[in-house]
Amino acid sequence: MEASQLIQNLLNGLAIGSVYAIFALGYTLVFSILGIINFAHGAVFTLGAYFTYTLVVGQFENNGLLKGINLFPNGSPLSGNPWVFALATLVGAVIAGLIAVLIERLAFRPMRARGADPLLALVSSLGVALVIVNLIQLLVGAEIYNFPSDAYGQVQPALSFQVGEKVVIIRTVQVIIFAVSLVMLAVLGYVIGRTKVGKALRAVAENPGTASLLGISVDRFILITFFLSGFLGGLAGTLVGTAFGVAGPYFGVTYGLKGLAVIVLGGLGSIPGAVVGGLVIGLAEAFVPSQYSAYKDAVAFALLFVILLVRPQGLLGRAQIQKV
Amino acid sequence: MKRIALTVALGVLASAQAQKVQVPIPIGVALAQTSNTALLGQEQVIGARLAEKFINGRGGINGTPIKLVFQDAAGDENSAINAFQNLITKSAVVGIVGPTLSQQAFAADPIAERAKVPVLGPSNTAKGIPQIGQFIARVSAPVAVVAPNAVKQALKLDPKIKKVAVLYAQNDAFSTSETGTFQETAKAQGLDVVTVQKFQTTDTDFTTQVTSVLNSGADLVIVSGLAADGGNLVKQLRQLGYKGLIIGGNGLNTSNIFPVCQKYCDGVIIAQAYSPAQPSAANQLFVKEYRAQYKKDPPQFAAQAYAGVQVMVDALRAIDRRKKLSQWDLDDLRVELNKQILAGKYNTPLGELRFDKDGEIIQKEFYVAQIKMKDAKNGSFVYLK
């Protein structure tokens, strides 16, 4: 492989891998606290993108119950330069976080209260995901909504540099995604590792019963976990939506499956594992030769399979110790 | 025991008795109302509903109203099969317009064929659809007829084109079929296909494919996909610096791609089987109705679904003149309707249509359009002579 191709693939892989990573972190947070997979996470990811779109554009033209609605006849105040767009993104992610809290209340808590099997919670979250996706279509149709190209100011669409004879090109939006993802990972790392909230979260994850005895309100921290998870999912949704368009109500489904592969690969419940898993899968996809790139999803899952054969606990997961 | 046997016997007798045709006359419509494909399906639903409104507004079939029975066929084969089965057995429809994708037609049409229910494909353009069976016809001209026009038009616009990059959605039967036609046409025109790239209709990130196209030095790019992926691919080609002409296949032939590639859609060439500018009275009426409701020109998918319903109703009208539809046994009417569809000539928004003995459409006019964007979101297909 030529140096230019190598660098090109590396950049492509890091950009998409970083989104996988912050998306998968949402999965991992919930898994580490409750030991269950929240299948509605992909739908929350989709919602995040739609919320931001609503704040930035506020119009859904063609189909659905909201057809013809225009929230900002004189243009949205949250559009036109990078800072207000960033604010809209954050607000969108916060609303997505609140929706995740609502999902916890409706789909997970009743199950937990009855001591139901974790599998039931998984199926219930799958049901929630389907309801959300269909609700989105009912409200705004199946169209793809794209952020207007001037929503985040006048940005050069691509950056390019010469490597030997060839040119390496990366879209500006991919660089931004990578930077935002890194910042988010650092912030989350700090919150979990260095703050009181983080300590309490880790205590609940370690042993909810003991944490409760120590005066930590387990239910409240489960809600906080869901909020963080939804926030990260919604943020990832907006980032992907910015890069590739808000590709209809179903566009979180693929990311939902991919996120699952990422956390299993990285090690279930391991936060650094989600980051490493995301980057590994992103890079693996980027290095699939372009004429076979339609098979990149298959490659991601094949890689997962191979790694699990060698390390069943995932790259950074801890092996289960059985006491006898 | 005797009573049970009697009940069973009566049940068997009842089911063996021929079913009469219901009034209003039920016509099945199995299109993608959910899933990724709903982007195309919702346009078709609009077209079908407009046809129903127009037909019933003018007295239906010689005074008998029609009723469209909608079943969501989503975007996958199983949903299409279920929709067909429900329409045939539960709703007792006389015929079906659908499904949306060729991929689904290959799975669901055989169900209708076995039940002897006529099917009109409104947007199935892959090779081999009418050959699925005697009861299968389509109002959507096959790719092989439409696609070559676009390549010839591109060469007219830029005679210096030598190298072609071809990209297609490999998980979609129609796109796979269309790309074959495009590649054959390119070679026949003396062009060099320098790279063939595949993607999935669910993909959003095309960086890998685009960088390969850029490195291949292609001066024409041909995309066969659906609206979401195709539009996104066009956008990323332009953003990453591709400057040459782009041809889009039938899947990109919808105003739904405008919000996807926005200003980057400008200049994309698309071969079409429908034009709002087609002067026939049937089309101008349809365009007027559509514009009044949706404030834009109707897309091809709406026009084809409208034509599908219209063809079925025109054929039913011819049968009704010979013998009132309500007096027919359902099974007999289905067989007769199939014969009549293939025998008739129709003036639809697509222009004049007929069918050959296989059920393949014989259409007179085709068009090549180039997208012109007015602003970030609004554009139109401008017809090239």
TrEMBL record, chain A:
One function term, GO molecular function aspect: L-isoleucine transmembrane transporter activity
Membrane-crossing residue ranges in chain numbering: 12-37, 83-107, 119-140, 168-192, 221-247, 259-282, 294-310
Keyword Transcription in record: no
Lineage: Bacteria, Thermotogati, Deinococcota, Deinococci, Deinococcales
Domain of life: Bacteria
Similarity-based family: Belongs to the binding-protein-dependent transport system permease family. LivHM subfamily.
Alphabetically ordered keywords of this record: Amino-acid transport, Cell inner membrane, Cell membrane, Membrane, Transmembrane, Transmembrane helix, Transport
Family annotation (InterPro entries): ABC_transp_permease (IPR001851), BCAA_transport_permease (IPR052157)
Protein name: Inner-membrane translocator
GO biological process, one term: D-alanine transmembrane transport
Cited Pfam families: BPD_transp_2 (PF02653)
Protein's membrane topology: Multi-pass membrane protein
This protein's GO CC annotations: plasma membrane
Keyword field contains Cell membrane: yes
PANTHER family referenced in this protein's UniProt entry, alphabetically: BRANCHED-CHAIN AMINO ACID TRANSPORT SYSTEM PERMEASE PROTEIN LIVH, HIGH-AFFINITY BRANCHED-CHAIN AMINO ACID TRANSPORT SYSTEM PERMEASE PROTEIN LIVH
CDD domains: TM_PBP1_LivH_like
Compartments it resides in: Cell membrane
Main location: membrane
From TrEMBL, chain B:
Pfam families: Peripla_BP_6
Domain Leucine-binding protein per the UniProt entry, residue ranges: 24-374
Keyword annotations of the record: Signal
Entries under CDD domains matching the protein: PBP1_ABC_HAAT-like
Record flagged with keyword NAD: no
InterPro entries in UniProt: BCAA_transport (IPR051010), Leu-bd (IPR028081), Peripla_BP_I (IPR028082)
UniProt xrefs under Gene3D superfamilies: 3.40.50.2300
TM regions (residue ranges): none
Signal peptide: none
Family per record: Belongs to the leucine-binding protein family.
The protein, known as: Amino acid ABC transporter substrate-binding protein
Organism lineage string: Bacteria, Thermotogati, Deinococcota, Deinococci, Deinococcales
